[in-house]
Amino acid sequence: MKKPNPDFDRTMIDGAGSLLSLIASGTATSRAELLDASGLSRATVTQRLNGLLASGLVCETQDTLPSGGRPTRLLAINAASGFVIVANIGETHIHLAAMDLQPAVLAETTLPFSITSGPDDTLTQISDAIAALAVEARKTNRLFVGIGLSLPAPVDFKRGCVVGPSVLPGWDEFDIIGWLKNRFAVPVYVENDVNLMTICEHKRRFPAIDDMVFVKIGTGIGSGMIAGGRLFRGAQGAAGDIGHIQFLSDDAPLCRCGKFGCIEARAAGWAIARDLSARGFRAETARDVIDLVDQRKPEALMLLRAAGRTIGEVVSDVVSILNPSLIVIGGTLARGGDLLLSGIRELVYQRCLPLATRNLSIVLSTAQEDSAMFGAAYLILDDLFGAAKIDQLLERYCNRAD
Amino acid sequence: MKKPNPDFDRTMIDGAGSLLSLIASGTATSRAELLDASGLSRATVTQRLNGLLASGLVCETQDTLPSGGRPTRLLAINAASGFVIVANIGETHIHLAAMDLQPAVLAETTLPFSITSGPDDTLTQISDAIAALAVEARKTNRLFVGIGLSLPAPVDFKRGCVVGPSVLPGWDEFDIIGWLKNRFAVPVYVENDVNLMTICEHKRRFPAIDDMVFVKIGTGIGSGMIAGGRLFRGAQGAAGDIGHIQFLSDDAPLCRCGKFGCIEARAAGWAIARDLSARGFRAETARDVIDLVDQRKPEALMLLRAAGRTIGEVVSDVVSILNPSLIVIGGTLARGGDLLLSGIRELVYQRCLPLATRNLSIVLSTAQEDSAMFGAAYLILDDLFGAAKIDQLLERYCNRAD
DNA sequence: AATCTTATGTATTTTATTATACATAATTGG
DNA sequence: CCAATTATGTATAATAAAATACATAAGATT
After folding, report:
1. Which of A167, A297, B46, B327 is the most buried (most CB within 10 A)?
2. DSSP E strand boundaries for B246-331
């Protein structure tokens, strides 16, 4: 494999990190904007930008901006210059993908997975798959920039471990970042799947919105929050864990957490499936519920609508507390569409103060199955191309080019 | 009045803003730390720091740090070099204070106030009082750095106005910042009183805690949130407005907002006073309630305990959603101490997942009446001495020194 | 008091960046 | 095709900051 540019010398991109960050974040997409945003002089910007262009990390796009005179050439991160590998641990499978810096999928794999597997076995399997994907991705002379892992459990993002008892027995406090860094010399990120879906939804559809909440209603119920434009994780990474908010009533059902009356036990996929089973239907998962809804079974329609109202109670609490400008409803049950949404809207507009709902939208997610994986890619790229870490990344690009 | 230092020349502090910010934020308190934190060279730091010292803005403290050799001289913002004026609009009075940069009170005034006064009249009164305080404070040759206004209503911080219907009729959308800037050529900040109390509690007692919630339980109920070390305001500045979160029951009382079952109608000062009145006591305000509690009237004790549990229901929702590491309970009813606290703790530990309560503390506020005013001062100083605005502030110091 | 240690200031050289001015490039509109 | 217009690169002088090395300060230790 040839190097992308043999005339490349590492001194050419000394100090170019800030420019790279500006381009990556979309703050500056042209030379003129770069001059403005960086505060550097024309000569310096030209010199450093040439370094970045020679390194292959940055490229000029096809498009130009007409300006009345010579058109402005637009700059962008060269998506082909690197790749990330993300893995999403689901309830029955692990999906892995190598993605370029767009991020767009380059290659994928799926592994079988049992929730009872310990972290060591699972991470060994994942590592092998990562290694295979990396070999593939490297064939096009890309730099391996990072690994992202999505888990269906509360995650302490900074420490990179699952915290608290969860659906993943044996993972509590296990040092995932340490384990993976031992095998791969790249930055490793671990995050909860709902948080990653939140990031994906925010980056893709609502990048301009600073305060939003994503609610995932699938087999379980969870949420992620964007506060001031950034994911809000709370003290232990448990922020947004709304599934086990309770409200009591005469018929409060038993939740899988051991308490009575949690909204999960009232409105999550498994709870609706339970209620449908009691009425003689065959239903176990959120998907079964949606299948029955699609068949227009009246009982399923009724239960989903009721679930919407139940969830609406909690969403209205969230709105009162956080005052977001957008609520996005996702997860398998969100395929129920307006059936679910109307109940949520009903309760929110009934319960919240006018001030909080004045500019509030409540919409359905358009995210696909793979949104957690894209979220992981966004998370990695935003962090690595951010001002704080960009110089380390540049360093790694240089070492490769040697 | 003499200038603090006649040998002062504005070119001496060119570029010294970043150093000033580092000192103000406490990031660097010595020359060595300044060198480290700024990344500048020894010569540059010496030169700019000398400028700051000559300007009177920065001073060396009495204390030095023993180091084995020559002791390290510590640096600090010279609290005497400037002043802010803050005003707190309460239900019956407006308190004003001039404060130095510590912040510590230099002079105070109180004005009578009626909630029905319109913004124009009120601001005229406030302005006159500010002008008088400013004359006083300027006698010691200080620079007037900013004005802060605390309001008992939801505030859109960026726009500087009250939003939504509130206890302040006629103030909705009134441009307070514009009005005051018209009269005083200094930065003006407007914020909700509970948010300011939150800032005060955070800065004074828990500066190291990144995620906390302050709950004010007085005549009404409100809260403020620190998320990631910063005040979280939400989309319209209504974040933390938890007083009107409802939960239904057979005996849901009517709230002053017009809905049934809000926690305010169940557990705020006015609601307890209402219940005590129904039992033949004379009680109207939160203070009346606390007086009866102090007299150990069983009915008052019982109602306060019950209020604790009611508030605990909402606080447990807040904990589930935000995962803070600290809850601070303040406001007049917080004088009820453990009587109130135990009910809150009981519900939170009962309802929240162990992960969320593992490292959670729930404590009483120690804040005094004036905490909103100190909060306002902290808000002003943190913003003006922050990296983003420090150069403007320096500019103003220079113009004065001319 | 002499010595050690760490803090702090300063002079000098070297390097990096800016400012300025100008040259060149790539369009649009006539 | 030409002029107008805006984008972009580059040479040069001027400036700011860093690096280096050394000098001095102020306490602790002996």
Report:
1. B327
2. 326-330
Mean residue pLDDT of chain A comes to: 94
**Start-end of H helices in A26-118:** 31-38, 42-55
Number of neighbouring beta carbons within 10 Å of residue B110: 13
pLDDT in tens, B143-163: 999 999 999 999 999 999 999
Contacts of A347 (CB under 8 A, 6+ apart): A309, A312, A313, A315, A316
Query: CA of B21 and C1' of C9: distance in angstroms?
Result: 23
Q: Are B201 and B328 in contact (CB under 8 A)?
A: yes
Residue B297: DSSP 8-state: -
Task: Dump pLDDT digits (tens) for B217-258.
Answer: 999 999 999 999 999 999 999 999 999 999 888 889 999 888
Residue A2: what pLDDT? 40
Window B:344-383, CB contacts with A under 8 Å: 351-356, 358-360
For residue A60 the two structure tokens come to 């000029």
Q: Are strands A230-232 and A221-227 parallel, antiparallel or unpaired?
A: antiparallel
Return the biggest CA–CA distance within chain A. 76
H or E segment at B195?
helix B193-205
A80-186+371-384 is classed in which CATH architecture? 2-Layer Sandwich (3.30)
Backbone angles phi, psi at B319, to 5 degrees: -65, -40
A237, A257, A324 ranked by CB distance to B353: nearest: A257
**CA-CA distance, B44 to B9, in Å (whole number)?**
17
Which residue spans within B29-130 are E strands per DSSP? Answer: 58-65, 72-77, 82-89, 93-99, 105-112
* Residues in CB range of B120: below 8 A, 6 or more apart: B179
- CB–CB of A321 and B230 under 8 A? no
At the top level of CATH, the class of B10-77 is mainly alpha
Per CATH, domain B80-186+371-386 is 3.30.420.40: yes
Pick the CATH number of B207-364 from 1.10.12.10, 2.40.50.840, 3.30.420.40, 3.40.50.300: 3.30.420.40
Bridge partners of residue B87, in order along the sequence: B96, B149
pLDDT tens track for B179-194: 999 999 999 999 999 9
